[in-house]
Amino acid sequence: MTTVRAEDREAGVRLLILDRAPANAITPQLLNDLSGALDAAREDDGVRAIVLTGEGRFFSAGLDLRGGIDFAAAITPGGATDPFAALRDSLLTCLRFPKPTVAMLNGHAIAGGLILVLACDYRLGLDGEYRIGLNEVEIGASFPRAAFEIVRLRLTHQQASELLLGAAIYPAQQAVRLGVVDELVSEDALEATVFRRAARLGGFPRDAYAQTKAALVAEAIARIEADTPEEAMRTAAVWMTAESVAARAEQARRLTS
Questions:
Q1: Overall average pLDDT of the 55-65 stretch
Q2: CA distance 9 to 11
Q3: Whose CA, among 24, 25, 34, 48, lies 20 to 30 Å from 55?
């Protein structure tokens, strides 16, 4: 069963919905499903633009720490695979997608969930009560190259430093200041506004949009592709240090207490 649903709307806009209850947490399957949905939309001439959102109260809670990636196995000498392969491939698919991509931030977007928001060309958020943030450092998680380059592409150095090094979780009202979204929109107007903006972008001549987008993201893509298996292993190893494991255990305790 797919974790990404697709719905076609007017003016060639296709809605992609992250749908993995209860919080749309990220697993390799979800990332592969997203890549597959984007591939299908790229090949469909009837699709002019994509809107990406999440089902329910979450856009995405980030990586599923209970069943997402086996970091211990990833750093075992001899025969380990890149633990970030699915994430890198999905983010590269989004960056290379030649048509407009618009994020409809409709709920909590934490850690890798916020990275998926930032991977989109244009981002609109609900003016509501939910939380956003990149709290990886707080829980002992290092940033794989693809996620880091997405942050560097979309945000100023000041914004990136605050989000990455401060590792705070913010109310959604801070999203514009932090560069996460271009605009916050009231609940009664959000969907109509998002689809109107997506239709406008999708109405531009295809080749002009695709060429300009490719030029804008070329340096980020090159840096992501320069990532080596050795660097990926070093990044994964950070997740398994004693302090990092203890930090995630403390977070789990707080969430369940």
A1: 94
A2: 7
A3: 48
Instruction: Give residues with Cβ within 8 angstroms of 221, minimum separation 6.
Output: 92, 95, 96
Contacts of 99 (CB under 8 A, 6+ apart): 41, 42, 47, 48, 49, 50, 202, 206, 209, 210
* Encoded tokens for 219: 């340096």
- Residue of 76, 29, 25 whose CA lies nearest to 240: 76
User: Which of 7, 55, 136, 230 is labelled catalytic?
Assistant: 136
What are 200-244's pLDDT values in tens digits?
999 999 999 999 999 999 999 999 999 988 888 888 889 889 999
4-186 architecture in CATH?
Answer: Alpha-Beta Complex (3.90)
C-alpha to C-alpha distance for 102 and 48, rounded to whole angstroms: 12
Q: 3-state DSSP call for residue 180?
A: coil
Question: Is residue 129 exposed (0-12), middle (13-18) or buried (19+ Cβ within 10 Å)?
Answer: exposed
The answer to whether residue 136 is catalytic is: yes
Domain boundaries, the chain: 4-186
CB 178 within 8 A of CB 163: yes
